[in-house]
Fold each of these.
Amino acid sequence: MPETVEIFEMGPRDGLQNEKRLIPAAEKIALVDLLSQAGFRRIEVTSFVPARWVPQMADAAEVLAGITRRPGIRYAALTPNLRGYQAARAAGADEVAIFASASEGFSRANLNATVAESLERFAPVAEAARADGIPVRGYVSVVTDCPFDGPTPPGSVARVAAALRDMGCYEISLGDTIGQGRPETIDAMLQAVLNELPPDRLAGHYHDTAGRALENIDASLARGLRVFDAAVGGLGGCPYAPGAAGNVATEAVAAHLETRGFRTWLDMALLREAADMARGMRKE
Ligand code: HMG
Ligand code: MG
């Protein structure tokens, strides 16, 4: 039996958050609805962050209210603090994500906080979600390279991943935020993180800036990871990480996994359609 690898679709959030044109909510809703037909079990729809920080996500509640929910799919949202969590809950997010950095430089730029302060801010989010029965995912960013602090020590990634685990995150997604990881650095990072968490609680979130995301996915498959984040059309990037380019494209990851003998259970024709739609949003 071929093994299954899950792709967690990031397009509506990580894919669109950095686009300059303010994309109307109706277009985002159409993208989520198309993605809902393609076979994903989890789709990251939006984030509940101040509009001043990420103007593109200011319509978070409107987008979540407008999508057609398919049974069996969890519609997720990023929540930087308790206020964001409460708004995400009110808008009907099925799961939330808290997002920390492995480096101080990126933590300051992206969260206006030290790593320790950000973890303190996430604790009440995790606590509230536990009380509400809402699954919480954790991100660790800049897992191999930071645009401010340079190469990231693997031990720093392991420490932050462990802190997020201790808060109750069911899965930790490891972000190569600026897409500078190489199979060797990804492998060294995973080796450290695997001392804290088993591979079935980890996901790879690799941006494709240097065109090495698929190689980095291969290195992660070899370490036992079976969940990868990707965005249709290869859109994306973090506005607070200079040099961050798109997420690895979902359609490229799905095709790659199939040729490696894994099953994703995704509809490739619908993925291509969604990728065209996402790229069309960028061009207008
Ligand atoms: P801050 O400015 O220090 O926050 O930002 P604050 O607590 O001082 O609040 C500032 C103002 O925002 C206040 O309003 C608050 O009420 C309001 P004012 O009094 O000025 O009128 N506010 C909010 N409004 C709406 N929703 C909220 C909220 N919270 C406060 N939730 C903060 C601190 C953490 C909020 C900010 O730094 C932030 O939101 N950062 C997130 C930036 C972001 O979204 N980055 C992109 C996503 S992360 C990413 O892409 C990486 C990832 O893909 C993985 C990878 O690739 O590595 C996940
Ligand atoms: Mg990202």
Amino acid sequence: MLQKNSIYPIEIEDIGHSGEGIGRIEGFTVFVEGGIPGDQVRVKIKSLKKNYGEGRIIQMIKPSKDRINPICHLANTCGGCQIMHMDYSAQLDIKKKRVEQILERIGKINTTIHPTLGMENPYEYRNKAQFPVGMIKGKAILGFYKKGSHDIVDTNYCHIQSPINKDVVKTMREYIEKYKITVYDEKTRKGLIRHVVTKVGFATGEVMVVIITNGKDLPLKNQLIEMLQKNVKGLKSIVQNINDKSTNVIFGRETITLYGEDKIVDYIGDLKFHISAQSFFQVNPIQTKVLYEKALEYAELTGKENVFDIYCGIGTISLFLAQRAKKVIGVEVIETAIRDAEENADINNLDNTEFYVGKAEEVIPQLYAKGMKGDVVVVDPPRKGCDEKVLETIVTMKPERVVYVSCNPATLARDLAYLEEKGYKTVEVQPVDMFPHTAHVETVAKLSKI
Ligand code: SAH
């Protein structure tokens, strides 16, 4: 029986969904933050629950062969990257293994799982950064939240972000310090600048800076605009967003354009997208192309098919599919996302798309009742997976193929098991690394009607 506060040797065998190491002591599962498979360590047991415990590394006996010095000196403090201390190819292997194990264990799915598609350069891949702003002794601090807290780790540079961010951060620091601009304090709810958000079009080089303020009046606005113009290459848009609520949500209701356009442009493949301050856009455009091209390949379109894109968001997959399908019908619960999807279809001159706002579990059965059917169905649900009503309607409409894009292998496994029980076979599965150095894994699965 394990004892709390006692020290044990352990070998880390696996990584959990938040990037924590997992090993066993006397057959009992222990989670070890910072441990990676192959590490032999000594841990002190911090807590014990019925089925598992948590241990803290107090001594490294023998490091894993996959352990590396992370490129970022803040990797252990900042909450952003959980497995940056693991060699990149080992990260890709462990992600494949996780998908494999979960599909087998939860879904009893027996299929081909390909090696994870990774990035050639797994750094500087994010197109959106959010910097909380604080102040210590008259010095502005901008950076990222510490693991599990709201303390800001001060930094000019993040290795997974576009390098343009350091120019934005430096300029904002300079503006705040030079003109003694106040920054927001979560406790007193006083002070002006709350967050700085940047968005970058990777294909176009266009940059948007969003300044989130607690109140409307932004002093010395013109000086700020001039400074950003001078220092930030590709600057196309400066936007102020006002959030005077006591909340962890970054954006408030009102948005004002201070300079340039209210949106920037980016491309994924040949498709053009408008990105505004608050619109959703995939954060890794390079891997989005890889993932959605795989989805398109799995859909095996000839140009004659009617396709459903369920949980379509701003229609990124829908537009990919529309280039090769007769018609694409997208369904999504957020109204502004559907407006973006329609606008994106429009600017790409794709007139074979139709979008519906509503809960998929309500809209899909209604559309089917009206006689609409998909020859191919693509789903890209949130972490909780597909609603059973959606799956039920899919199997009743009997499409030739179902392409399942998933950000959570556990719900993917559950839903594949449902579809396999009702006449579909999982032909192949492709994990894609959308977020290098984090524990996330995205997966696309191809199912065919038996
Ligand atoms: N492929 C999309 C992203 C999908 S993310 C894109 O590229 O934009 C999952 C989407 O499902 C989110 O946009 C979310 O708003 C939507 N969603 C969540 N619950 C839903 C429901 N019950 N019905 C329809 N859409 C839902």
Amino acid sequence: MRTVYLNGQYLPENEATVSIFDRGFLMADGVYEVTSVLDGKLIDFDGHAVRLERSLRELDMVNPISKEDLLEVHRELVRANGIEEGMVYLQITRGAPGDRDFVFPDPEETEPTIVLFTQNKPGLADSPAAKKGMKVISIEDIRWGRRDIKTVQLLYPSMGKMMAKKSGADDAWMIEDGFVTEGTSNNAYIVKGNKIITRALSNDILHGITRAAVLRFAQEAQMEVEERNFTIDEAKEADEAFITSASTFVMPVVEIDGVALGEGVPGRVAPRLREIYLEESLKAAV
Ligand code: PDD
């Protein structure tokens, strides 16, 4: 049985319970982060902690925990649960005011709820999916306008993943006004020659922590990076495509809406970026 963290306490998972009045449950009024673990260490913890603070601030939520304490909780859960490869999930909600009300509760009276738990994923780095590449379909992006805030409103991304599954694909890329925004739970990229193309940061997409690192490593490796919109048709004609996220690192995409990219197998750039990302982020892991 896992040890989890709830509001200052380490508990067996079956003893950690949250109120039915919690605004995370009633209104998806909460934010989250997923930090990966490799070699028993946290990848890019700092980036996730900084983005968490931003998400909370944008929603006028109080941060119940300092960065130092948060790191300590992450480490303790990794240790207690013996995680070598996997992830730590963190969620903070606006808490349980005791009634359902659209108005935010007074933060002086209602404390946020904070939950962390681990997921064990042996073989995460050496994933067979990364060697095979994944298939994506395209779907309309009908999410809200503040996708830069990492909220727990994940119903549409879940539906997108189900649409992909039903059509024999692995994931969906979302399209707004003709242009790809991002994957259901990852950032989206295409490659043309030596150039990596990905949508620029705005409120339309999540500012991926893996994205930031991968683009930095790409530039350091003299690859060209272009941050601009691209259409799904441009993607289908690209040499390569890939996604990034904390749970998949860099994952090649080999098919879009049934159209194979290049030879229909991972190309040169995405696997190389995955290698660099894993190597460099492991060096900096805490
Ligand atoms: N998802 N875009 C969306 C919509 C996401 O949900 C995520 C992360 C990303 C990539 O961000 P990062 O590189 O910081 O993980 C982009 C996490 C992993 C999840 O929901 O499980």
Amino acid sequence: MSKTRILVTGGAGFIGSHYVRTLLGPLGPDDVTVTVLDAFTYAANPANLDAVQDCDRYRLVVGDICDRDLVDRLMAEHDQVVHFAAESHVDRSLASATEFVRSNVLGTQTLLDAALRHGADRFVHVSTDEVYGSIPEGSCSEEQPVNPNSPYAASKASSDLIALAYHRSHGLDVRVTRCSNNYGPHQFPEKIIPLFVTRLLAGEKVPLYGDGLNVRDWLHVDDHVTAVELVRTRGRAGEIYNIGGGTELTNRDLTELLVEACGAGRDSVEYVTDRKGHDRRYSVDWRKAHVELGYKPRKNFTDGLAETVAWYRDNPDVWGRTNQTKGSAPC
Ligand code: NAD
């Protein structure tokens, strides 16, 4: 039986590597091969892929999704794309948006063009709840127009629109997912959970933005990759699927939980000047993914957070590793 050849972009980052480890793990399908295409920016970690290094259905290509020739060659050898690669940190997009527009917008369009040229049968584009902008109450359905505020969110919204345009104009089978904030092991320590955990474990103070009352919905990375796989295998072309986690917390409440889980004192928290244009609250309505695909977040937040803290405590050598690649050169 021939195997489905999946090109996973950004597979050395937090969520992409979790997807690859899951797909090639004991519970994953055995009828797929996976090629990771990753540029190994600061956010990537070769250790994220150690677990699959020896799998004969896995290959690593170090390269940029904006490299048209490389992407073209790779796409000719693949059936499907699951696209995670992106610049993903809002604060960095406030300091400079150039790389966000390049990787997130131009990179996505480069992949879409190649997918179209080579007749890829599926393109799963992984996006974010941030494209909807801030919502004071209720939850955004997939019909809600995008209204992004940060350069990061605007670059993701742009890539979503371009991806959907390739479906509407050219008939390419594009499926878009929009998920809430992910947490779990193997995340580069710059976003709130891994940053605070690694600092608190080291006995350092943590910086809480503004009044700490911004609200986020937390989604365990296990649940997210399960949803992405459901969208890849059971979703419909041209559709958007919201993926929520079901645990809404203010950053202040989250910080209290992290302080406690790390055994730190309340004086570890320093309130700092708010992020520019800091969205107050995100919330997605994920009933469509539930009804159509059977998606439901399974991970209990208390357990997931405790396991995440334990992972950072036990693996300083892993998350502390630089992005020196162990993979093959660009093909
Ligand atoms: P990450 O920053 O951990 O990883 C991104 C990966 O993409 C890295 O391995 C990086 O090297 C790679 N990459 C970046 N630019 C590239 C380029 N030009 N060419 C090739 N590779 C490139 O990100 P993540 O948290 O794993 O997020 C994955 C996807 O999920 C992103 O598209 C992000 O927008 C989306 N998302 C993330 C979250 C979250 O909470 N982390 C929430 C919603 C959506």
